[in-house]
Design a protein that fits this description.
With 112 residues, the protein is mainly α. It has one domain. The chain contains seven helices and no strands.
């Protein structure tokens, strides 16, 4: 299996954001908290985002004003503290993707 190119990595983040938005469309915090499959699907996409950011060159990320440590840390939190995840934290993260999406789109435009 070939490693993804840097451009493919960036595109996969945008795809994960798109999927998260698609998954939670029409959901509120209460309905989200009752749907374990939905929670799992969303968490998986956050894992993809965090893992992918870990593999984007730090020199590229440094050019863009975004707290890159947050999605990386969120990935680690989901992986390592899975038993203590508060569902509302995951839900609120789904509502706070605009800044990340904006910066990833800028990277895609400017770097590739």
């Amino acid at each position: 299996m070939d490693k993804p190119t840097p451009k493919e990595r960036v595109e996969s983040i945008l795809n994960a954001i798109r999927l998260i938005r698609q998954f939670v469309a029409g959901e509120d915090e209460i309905s989200f908290s009752k749907d374990i499959k939905l929670q799992s699907a969303v968490q998986y996409q956050f894992l993809i985002i965090g893992e992918t950011i870990r593999h984007i060159d730090d020199e590229i990320l440094a050019k863009y004003n975004y707290p890159w440590h947050i999605p990386r840390s969120f990935r680690n939190f989901i992986i390592h503290v899975y038993h203590g995840i508060k569902v509302e934290r995951i839900y609120y993260a789904t509502q706070d993707l605009n800044g990340l999406e904006e910066q990833i789109n800028r990277i895609l435009t400017n770097e590739f």
